[in-house]
Structure formats: C-alpha cells, structure tokens
Amino acid sequence: MYLSYEWLNDFLDLKEWSADDIADRMSRTGIEIEGVENIGAKLSNLVIGEVVQMEKMPDSDHLSITQVDIGQGELTQIVCGAPNVHQGAKVIVAVPGAVLPGEFKIKKAKMRGYESNGMLCALQELGFPDNVVPKKYADGIYILPSDAPVGADVVDYLKLDDPILELSITPNRADALSMRGSAHEIGAIIGQAPRFSLTSDYSVIEDQALLDSVSVEVAMPELSPHYQLRLIKDIEIKESPVWLQMRLMKANMRPINNVVDLTNYFMLLYGQPFHAFDFDTLTASNVKVKEADEGSKFTTLDGTERTLTSADILIWGGDVPIALAGVMGGLDSEVSDSTKNVLLEAAVFDPQRVRITSNKFNLRSESSSRFEKGINPATVDEASEQTAAMIATLGQGKVVKGKVEKNTLDVLATEVTLAFEVIERKLGIQMTEDDLSEIMRRLGFSITFNDNYFTVTVPPRRWDILIEADVLEEIARMYGYDRIPTTLPTVPSTPGKLTERQRLIRQTRAISEGFGLNQVISYVLTSPKEAELIKSDSHPFVKLTLPMSEERSVLRQSMFPAMMEIAKYNNAHQNKPLAFYETGKVFYGQVDAALPLEEERYAILISGQAEAASWYAPQRQYDFFTLKGMVEGYFEAIRLDHMVRFEAVSDIDVMHPGRTANIYLGDQKVGFLGQVHPNITNDYDLDTASFYAEIDLSYVVSISREALVQLSISKFPETSRDLALLVSVDQTHDVLVNLITDNAGQYLKKVSLFDLYKGKNIAEDKQSLAYHLVFQNPDATLTDIEVNEAMERVTTALLSIDGLEIR
Questions:
Q1: How far is CA 167 from CA 31, 539, 605, 744, in A?
Q2: Any residues with CB less than 8 A from the CB of 434 and at least 6 apart, and which?
Q3: Is residue 542 within 8 Å of 587, Cβ to Cβ?
Q4: Over 90: is that where the pLDDT of 714 sits?
Q5: pLDDT digits (tens, 9 = 90+) for 509-535
Q6: Distance CA 789, CA 387 (A)
Q7: Which of 337, 284, 364 shows the shortest CA–CA distance to 136?
Q8: What is the pTM for the complete model shown?
Q9: Can you tell me the distance from the alpha carbon of 530 to that of 540, in angstroms, rounded to the nearest whole number?
C-alpha cells in the first residue's frame, strides 16, 4: 500500500507532523513502513511551458525545433524528439540548471547545430516508473491540460513534493489497505479524528423502468453475501484530470480513463474494489453470480482464455460470462472509448475462492488482494454511491437513482468484554478508566465499565478485532510498546545446554572450517528437475501446493543440487577455491503421514584448483583423496574413526561410477563420497575434478561416542617396522589395515600407507603397497622380541589372503 502524504492531508491536520515522523510512529505501533520516497523533493527548475511554434529539424526524421513560452516574456528554443509534441501543447520544461533523477543535469546545448535551451520532459524523466505512466504518454512527453498556467512551477502544479509511505500490511490489518483506514490509524496515533467529506452535488435521474430491467441473482449466499449494481448513463469516456492521474500514479497504478481511474481511486480510498461494465455490451441485464462449470472457458480482459473449475466464481450477464469475480473482468464487457452507459459493481466475494482463482491464474491484483484479506462490509453502499457520483461528475453523465442488490450481510459492531486485571497480568502495565477511555476514543471505539470489567464496542471497519487478545494488542499499541516496562517472567530455573544434535552441528562447522571449507546456506526448496538428480526410491517428493515459482516448488532429498548451483555461481564469479560445506535438512514424503520425514545432512563439495601456482610449488588440483581425507578426518575428530569404512559403488547416477564409495559406520550406510560425473560437471560449467560427499548426521548423532580421555605423553620410545606387500589391484586398503590392526596387538599405535606402486617389474594385475607400523608401550620400553612377535601375527594373517606376497 502506497500512502500519499498530500492525500492524507485531506483527512487529517498534519502541519506539525512530517512524513518521517508518521512513518516512525506507525512502525512503532505495529504497521511496518518499508520506506518513504518523495520524487519531488529534489526536483527544481521545472516550469509549465506552451509550444508556440514548431518545425521539423532538417535532415532528421524525429527531431523538432520548438519555440516554447515559459512565462519569461520571450520564447525559448528547445530541440525535442518526442513523437507527440505539437503546437499549442502545454508541456513540462526543464530549464538549464535543473537536475533530474540520476543526477542528469540540464544545460544549454547544441543539437546538430541548433541551440537547445532546456528539455521537454516525459514523466519517466521526473522519476515515475514506466509501469504507471499512461500508455498515451509512454513513448513521448507528458501533455498537460490546456488550462495549465504557463510559467508555473511543475512540482507545485502536479503536487510532486509529496512523500509516499510504502506500507507493508500484514493479513490481519487489511483495514489499512485504504486511505480512510490508514487515516483512522494515523489519527489514533497522533490523537486526531479523521474528517471525511461526501459528494452530494451530482446529476441524478429517475429511470425506474431501466433500473427495474436490471436484476441480480446470487446462486449461493456464501459466494457473494453482498452484491450491488448501480447504473450511470450518458457518460463521456476521456482522460482523467491531472489531480486524479497523479494520485493514482503515486499509488503505483497506471491511469486508463476517467471511469476505470475512478474505480481504482475509490478502491484506494475505501478499500472496496469495483468493476465497471459497459452496460450496452451485455446480452442481458439479469446479472448472476454463480460457480463456474468444471472445464468451462472464459476470456479475461487481458485477452487470455482461461479454463475454469467449480472453485471459481463467475459473473454472468444473462447466459454470457462477463467477469471472473474479484479477479478480472471479461474482454467483451470492458469499458472502452465508445462506452456511454456504465453498470458499476460493488460486492463482497468469498475470500478463499478469490485467493484460489488469483493464485491459480497468477492474476494478483490490488482488487484480489483486498477481497482475499477482507473489506469493510459497512461501507459497500457508501463507497458505491460515491464512486457512481464521481463517475457522473467527471464523465458529464447521470446516475440512475437507486440500486439493485442482494444483501444477506448483517453488519454489526463487535463487543469484547475484558477484566481489568488482565491488562496488568498480560501487558505488565496498570491503567485507569480514564486511560482506557482515552485510548478507545483515539481508536474510534466505544467503551463501558462494569465493576471490574469493561466492554469495548468495535466498529465494523476493524473486522480484525474479535477476542480479548485483539483488544489487548490495541491497548498495547496505543500505550506504546516502547513504554511497556521490561520484566523477567517468574519461572522455575532450569539450566540450559545444547542438545547432542546442536553440539554435533557446531563441532561439524568447526572441523569443516579447519579443513579450509567455506560454509554455505542454501534453499531447501528446489525445482522438480534439480530434485531428480538424487532422489529416494522409497519416498516421494514433498511438493508445495502454491509455490512462488517453479524453481522453488519441491523440498530437496539431497543437498547435491544446491551445492552444485553454489559452486557454479562462485566459479562464474572467479571466487576460488571452490571448497564448500553445509549442514542442513532434507525431506522425504511419507504416504501415510501428513508431515515429511526430516533428516540432518552434512555435505562437502570441492572443485578444481586447490592451490594456485607459486614460485615454490606448482598448481594443485583437488582429487578424490583430498575429499576422502576430509571425511576420514571428520570421523576421527568426532571419535568415530574406528567404525568408518568405505565400499566402492557405481549406482549413483550423478557420480563417477569408478570413483565413488558408500560410507559406512559399522554396518550402517551413512552417506557417500566420490567424484562428480563429468556429464554433470559439464552441465554446471565446473572442472571435471569436482568431488562431493554427503553424510547423514541424523544417524551419526544417535551413536554413542567414547568419552574423550587425555593421556599423558609416554616417556618410553616408539619403535617401527615397514611392511611391503604385493597384492591384487582389486585388493582394498581397508581390509589390509583392519587385518593388521586386529592382529598387531595392543601396542600398535599407528598404521600408514607410505607407498603404492604399479608398473614395471610388477604384473599388470598386481600392485605393491608399503605400510609403516608404529608400536609403543606407554608403561615400558618395547623389546624386539615383543615387536617381532606382533609382526609374525600380522604376516600370518595377511598370508591368508589369496595371491598376497610379503616382499
């Protein structure tokens, strides 16, 4: 909602209140202000001019040389390229010295040898966005009315020095989606009662026969509990006056013509949407409101044919649909330049159905948002009458006296009774009867007192106030949230501590950053295509019913797509090295459960260059063992390295079939790691040396880990042995290390692979592996006999492997 400070002055005396003051007070009483913008604050040296003479510039197909009267006693020559400039036009002139938005300075200049002493301006050059400029002037300059005073200041004439407050309205405060509602809110804040004037001087005619020919039928009251029509005859469709166009443009709405503009103007004023039909285009004057037939077609005024369902509400003129209720009118009944008679609709529609229809067809509009959030049922009749009156006034037409309607609404004030003590108990403040009376007076509510209770009567314009909590909120807002004392609740003291999950996630972050990884945080929503990259065979996707976009419509089952997108973005921006980690959730749909299954995951992605070339070392690329080392280092840091093992796998489509392994803790698979498939890296514009790992933290956190025990440094020396083995190329390192560890005895401290050789002097199906074993007894010096016995046990166990040779 865009709130014009100049328009607000019609209802309130704001001489002592700046727009920034009002914005600050509104923000502190519950309505967020996104910002305050005043396009006219920095505009100067803009005057109204009249094009007295005009001639085409020689050798140019679009430039004109104009002589403009700007009220200085002599004509000013200005070169202009606008296609709609003409002799006699009243125009906006930026004279030398003017500074337009974007720091565009106007100076005397020469264009193709002709002097130009200023510029004739379009509205866009004053700061208005393209989407609000009338289409008539979208590609040219703005033409002012013929009675615009030559030489007058444009900022004053168009009232451009007008701060616009952008309100962020929450669904419960839809009453503020109107100038009148906002005036009530601001009046309550600054202690003024807003004043509203009604139009009573307009042309009315008696034509009962014509009015009787119009009928209204509502199939079900819940579709439209109040539906009203008024008829305006003999109007002239034309451009709206400047004051009306300016107010609409400041409210981020494009002027169309006087009838359409007035329906929008009064929607902004009252919060009541309207629709104007060309009465003469209706095939019948019996108007019906009913559900659409399943699969029926309807062409909206944007020229699009829509397929409807029974959830949509259609307005019918006889047997022909003429509007999609609360959303958009029909192409065949819209007001055009030839319209003479207008049928004006004002209604209350089922908000849920309007929301379904507008979301389904992506037809979000100012009207639909108001129907969805609620409108004031008490002012439907007044708003309709005032709109019809102004259409007749600006269109030189006549309002047919009377109205045709179906109204099943009982518009009543709401009464809420509260105990005095609840104010102190729930708000922490004490209030007297006089204090409460003053707050209710400012809000425009009435209040009565009865012993220890009071009853607040709320007018229909605040349909959001229904229960005790709503009244307490109003009291707190008007009292001032910043005045409510800060107190600590009296509750039993309980020591706070992190859960095991929280501790593991924090530990995971610290470990990852120790590896040199950068944390990323990605969306849990992704596109259906991206979600298919890695998915569960046993769980369906969780899809949003009403997604904001197709790219964010499915909850992820893996963090892989998001990590690849992040790597792609950073690679395109040369943010290297590409080394990322994330802890987050994945979601699995459950057929028999309303809520999805959530699992915590830990993902690592490294890609491309690990270190740039330098004078002392060549460039280094990430490889499989970089990632495997990080995974092993992670499990070692959380004291689960004794349980971790890896098994080669080739059934993960996005991973390289020969360079991928599942990760196990004991017998439980907890994730996978490996090289990303070259086809996938190519799709994401990444180096083929891209590696990814994903670990199920939900399972990891469930494992009991041994306590971390700090041992003293042994004063006894270590001793070591080397062991060289000739094994099959299919032999896994894990099996060998496990055999060595299981048979070397309690004094084996460490086993490490220090050499791997394949090639000359070794059979093609063989490889040579060399291990370094370190032994240490923390309580005594190991003897050669003890170490040799341990090595004999190791070699005996290793020789049980077919084809293994000890070298």
A1: 7, 43, 42, 74
A2: none
A3: yes
A4: no
A5: 999 999 999 999 999 999 999 999 998
A6: 103
A7: 337
A8: 0.69
A9: 15
